[in-house]
Amino acid sequence: MKIRVWLSYDLGVKGDYESLYLWLDEQKARECGDSIAIFLWEDVENIKEDIKKSLEAGVEFKKTDRVYLIFKKEDNYTGSFIIGKRKQAPWAGYSSEYTEDDD
Q1: Total-model pTM
Q2: How many Å separate Cα 23 from the centre of its chain?
């Protein structure tokens, strides 16, 4: 059985987009906004590792590249970075939380 997965990618300015786009085209992926694609993948026990191996076989990733995968696991959706890791959000620090001072 195939399941729907979302792939979010950030390869920076000099990333290997050509190879990534070839890989996405081979998956018959559909565009879902800037740097997000959706496609079907065989539901396997280690889907994250399976997709990561497939990507790394065709795309040259740098240390700063990031790929985030979202998929349905049992009755919930889950997501994690399969390439790279989380970094500080560009919106961090924009809101201010109210705190009372003890004067």
Answers
A1: 0.86
A2: 14
